C-alpha cells in the first residue's frame, strides 16, 4: 500500500473525527526500540512513542518474548475464572504504586480506567459531582469526557466548553485550578466526590503542576472528604524520571489511573486504590478483556524491563539533558516562549515574541521539517502550539544530540519563506 492509498482508504472507511499529523504522512511499517521505518525504507527517530506508550521501545524483544509465550499458553478466559498473570500483575503494581495503593481493577483503555475511577469515587463517597482542571484530558466516555477540560476533546455536542471561572457545575463537573478556586467550590457544595487531575498535563501542553500545589490542595480535599484521583495514564511508568509523576510532588492519591505504557503497546489499563476505598466497590462490575493473560504478561514484561534497565534514572538524566538543550535553543530563538517538563516528558511552547499569540502554524512547520530530517515529534496544547518530546526511554545520548541538531537547523530556517 502507498501512503496515498492508505489515506484514501482512511477517508472512505474510518471516521473523519480521526485527525492525522503531516501534509504527506508516511506509512509506517516497522518499529524497533526508538526507531521507525516507512514503506519506502526511510528510518525515523521516534520522539513521541505513540503518545507516551512505547516507553520500553517498539517491538521490544524482551517484552514480546513474554507475550508470545503467554499467547502459546493461554490467551483469554475473562475474570469470572481464576488465572495467574492478572494476580502477578496486581501484586507487582502494589509494590511499585505509591503509599498504600494496592487494589487494582483492570480494563482496556485510559478512558475506561478514568470512567471506572470516577464511578468508584461516587460509590465510595455517595456523592455525585467532580472538580477537574482546565486543560486536563481524561477520555472519551461519558464521565471521562465530562471532566476533560480541553474544548476540542469535548466532542459531545451537549457539553459546552469549560467555563473560564468556576461558575456552577457543567454536567456535574466544576472546572478549577487554584487552591482558592477549589476551596470556594468546596465551601458551597457538599456533593463533590472527587478532584481529578493529571499531575503533569500531557495533551494540555506538557504542564507540570506548580511545586507545592498538592501540599495546598490535598488538605482542602481531606477537610471536605473529597477523594483525589491522579490520572497517570500519560505520565506513568518512568516517563517523568520517576515511576509515577505523583512522586515528584510527594503525592499519594486516593485513586490512580494507568494505561498507555503499562502494556508497552499491548492494550491494558487499570484504576488502583486503597483497601478502604476498594472495599466499598461491591456492586457487580467487570471488563470482558480486562486483566486478560496476554495483556498482563506484556505489563509484567514492561515492569521487569523498566526495573532491569533502570529506565527511571535514564529518563531523568536524558530528560535533564533534553531540557538543557531546549533551554539553550530558547535563548537563541525567541519564538520558543517556554520550555517545561519532567524527565522525558518535555514541551516547548511556540508563540509570537511580540504579541504572545500562539503559533500553531509554526509548530506544524517544525514537525514537517523534522519529518524530512527523520525525526517524529508530537504536538499538543490548547492552541496546538506546543512541541511535545516524549520518546521511548531507551533513546541514547547520540539520539538526543541528533534531535537537538535537527531542531537547531529547523529553527534557523526562514519560516515565512519556507511557507
Ligand atoms: C492523561 C490521559 N488520560 C486519559 C487518556 C485517554 O486514554 P485512552 O485513549 O487510552 O482512552 C489519555 C489519552 O491520551 C491521556 O493522555
Biggest sheet strand order reads 4-12-11-10-7-5-6
Q: What are the segments in which pLDDT stays under 50 over at least 5 consecutive residues? A: none
Mean pLDDT: 97
Q: What small-molecule ligands were found?
A: pyridoxal-5'-phosphate
Characterize the largest beta sheet: strand count, sense, and whether it forms a barrel. Answer: 7 strands, mixed
Query: Terminal Cα separation, in Å?
Result: 29 Å
- Which CATH architecture of the largest domain would you pick? 3-Layer(aba) Sandwich
CATH homologous superfamily title of the largest domain: Type I PLP-dependent aspartate aminotransferase-like (Major domain)
Number of helices: 14
Radius of gyration: 21 Å
What is the domain total for the residues?
A: 2
What helical percentage do the residues reach? 25-40%
Task: Could you tell me the CATH topology label of the largest domain.
Answer: Aspartate Aminotransferase, domain 2
Strand coverage percent: 15-25%
How many distinct beta strands?
Answer: 17
Return the structural class: alpha/beta
**What would you call the shape?**
globular
What is the top-level CATH class of the largest domain?
Alpha Beta
| Quaternary class | single chain
